[in-house]
Amino acid sequence: MPPASAAAGLRPGRVRLAMALGLADAHVRLALLLTLPVCLALGLSVGRWMRVPVDWPGWLSLLLVQPLLEELAFRGLVQGCLLHLVSQAGSPRRWGPVTLANALTTLLFVLLHLRVQPLPWALAVAGPSLLLGHVRERLDSVWPAVLLHVWFNLGFSLAGGLAQQKSWQLFSNHS
């Protein structure tokens, strides 16, 4: 009997990539799907106050540099260390479905965003941050969280840009 990946028409290399990025995980796929309505709601409610990139270096930073550095620092280093520090008998301490490490990491993540975004938008990153932390713990890797972070940043920024009537700048400003 051929492997499931062959039956689905996927080559083994693509299956490994999908698994490494977390795309084989139902929680990750659900997060990707639910991003659209969340971004639209946020864009309509607080998007006019959001700082949106206006040039390609800004978009490059928002979609590649920031997700990579933030996830390596927050989900990799901070949450990784906290998971070990606040565990009891080798098991992470929890507040319901959320680990204490994830909650503390999310608090730090929101505080970081307060430096550059208005309060409602900075608070809006708490939900995605908890999800990124959950995915990091569930899959024991920061790479799916990096992928989701890129996706979230793209959605939030497009929604904010549309709310500000600046969406035309995405492709017209080549500086």
Please explain how this structure is put together.
By secondary structure, this protein is mostly helical. It has one domain (25-172). The protein is 71% helix and 5% strand. The chain is built from 9 helices and 4 strands, in the order ααααββββααααα. It has helices spanning 4-7, 12-20, 26-46, 56-85, 100-114, 119-124, 126-139, 143-163, 169-172; strands spanning 87-88, 91-92, 94-95, 98-99. The strands form 2 sheets. Strands 1-2 form a two-stranded antiparallel ribbon. A hairpin with a 2-residue loop joins β3 and β4. The longest helix is centred in the middle third of the chain and has 30 residues, at 56-85. It is globular and about 55 Å long. The protein starts with a helix and ends with a helix.
Helix content: over 70%
What proportion of the residues form beta strands (DSSP E)?
A: under 5%
Mean pLDDT: 79
Strands ordered across the widest β-sheet? 1-2
Beginning-to-end CA distance, first to last residue: 55 Å
Overall 3D shape: globular
The overall number of domains is 1
Structure classification: mainly alpha
Low-confidence stretches: 1-8, 166-171
Order of helices and strands: HHHHEEEEHHHHH
Radius of gyration: 18 Å
Total strands: 4
Supply the number of helical segments. Answer: 9
**Biggest sheet overview:** 2 strands, antiparallel
